[in-house]
Amino acid sequence: MDGIIKIEESNMVLQVSKEFDPSVLNMSEWDDFLDCLCGTRDYQKQAIKTAIIYMASGEYESINQLAKVNYSDSSELQEKYRTEIDYINTLQLPNKLSGVIDLATGTGKSYVMYGISQLMLGMGLVKRVLVLCPSITIEKELQQKFRTLSQDAKLKSYLPSSSLMKNPRIIDANVTIGESDICIENIHTVYANTGSSIEDSFKFGGQDTLVLSDEVHHAYNSSGDADIKKWKEFLLGVYNFKYLIGLTGTAYIENEYFSDVIYRFSLREAIDKQFVKMVEYVAKDEGLEQNAKFQKIYANHIEFKKIYSGIKPLTLVVSKDIRSADCLANEFIDFL
């Protein structure tokens, strides 16, 4: 389209300087912990380190400063945005230590969120962590993963002796979020409970709190859901949060890539490095009635169980909304 300049997503990622004062931030003492947490998934370690250096090194006051440095160094950004002010105006959460980590779906965002939480608490940079997500399902999955990691004796054994917090409590917003707590909640409950837990937890402000927003593209994009629309408003609201990191695998507003991404591990990279499998798409069967479609899906599943005996094959069936998905699931269960 005329007047629209498209640049590669990788050229939009903000580069966080690796040059910082080690007396201010000692990252090396956390290497063993990160090795144990992330294993061979080096991209997870790099995402965690990038976020911590950005927030804890003292090199940046806010996303505005990071964006300005990158704009002056990037001919691509200068080509896309006519002036520095035009670029700064695209930032979703300005004047905060905010940013987005773009990790392809299936690459383990929960490990990155837990790692960032543990380091920020252990370094004493924040007193509590609030993890926000868009649904109850995701909330329960994150709570289970965080509890598993927080109770992992081997992982805890690699925490440096200097760590100020070794046993974070994993809770939800039904109780006041105290010091050393990691609270995981869906955004709907946050608004339902306003006036109780959330207000009690942040009545003195959120400057000492790290807020992690999972699937942050929901907060950045407009939505018909009233609570989702308030998500960004909550992040920028009366609690004056300072540390705001979002995670997503779809860092786009319509067709425009986010302007505040600080780390990216794309789906193409994940597939090439064999962390994520290529999806095999099946063509639409317009001419078949429902049971015939189910029979094809079931036959395909049985075939893959035979070929790939060591793994559980998965088939994804896409529908237009949650109600349709529920009906389809019940019909498929009846068929089986």
From TrEMBL:
Gene Ontology molecular function: any one: ATP binding
Record's GO cellular component terms: cytosol
InterPro entries in alphabetical order: Helicase/UvrB_N, Helicase_ATP-bd, Helicase_Restrict-Modif_Enz, P-loop_NTPase
Gene3D superfamilies according to UniProt: P-loop containing nucleotide triphosphate hydrolases
SUPFAM superfamilies (alphabetical): P-loop containing nucleoside triphosphate hydrolases
Pfam families linked to this entry: ResIII (PF04851)
Domain Helicase ATP-binding span(s) in chain numbering: 90-269
Signal peptide: none
Name listed for the protein in its UniProt record: Type III restriction enzyme, res subunit
Source organism (scientific name): Hespellia stercorisuis DSM 15480
